[in-house]
């Protein structure tokens, strides 16, 4: 218990990292600790992706979003009532640091466009696309595929409702593009976004991100 500080400080870095090493083995831990990933969108998909990557020990995360937390987000996103009204980037950074106080969290509270996408995600080999609208998803994918030749993109498509979770899959479209989801279900009246399937899809994305960071390219 010597590694545990007082409640305001939490665990020491040594204790925290030793626990991850015991779970992952040192080689896996070191790879993830020295790796980075970006999450484009901090809603249902993005907040869940970021939490899973932080728990796994990814050392550096970039969170990009322009929106604020709303009450309607709480049914599926990682936020709490106290976060309502905050920028999602600020709220999620707070959550991630509560999970892993030694993670490096960077945030950009901006709207991503075709014109700024390359600059926003420059330097990140893994980008998890987590936007709401199909046209924004396509915009980001196309912009990064064209402008960032080393970037691999993991996108989410189709996770609405309460259909079987087994229909959500990870598919490799090209060596640089992976799509997670069922590919068909969209949010609509009587078929809204719900926590379980959104989280399943998000964790497909997070799992593929971890695989790529660890050198695995197959789904």
TrEMBL record:
It holds the Pfam family ThiF. Keywords: Nucleotidyltransferase, Transferase. Residues 25-217 form the THIF-type NAD/FAD binding fold domain. GO terms for molecular function: nucleotidyltransferase activity; tRNA threonylcarbamoyladenosine dehydratase; ubiquitin-like modifier activating enzyme activity. The keyword Nucleotidyltransferase applies. Signal peptide: none annotated. InterPro entries: ThiF/MoeB/HesA (IPR045886), ThiF_fam2 (IPR012729), ThiF_NAD_FAD-bd (IPR000594), Ubiquitin-activating_enz (IPR035985). GO terms for biological process: cyclic threonylcarbamoyladenosine biosynthetic process. It comes from the Bacteria. This is Sulfur carrier protein ThiS adenylyltransferase ThiF. The gene is thiF.
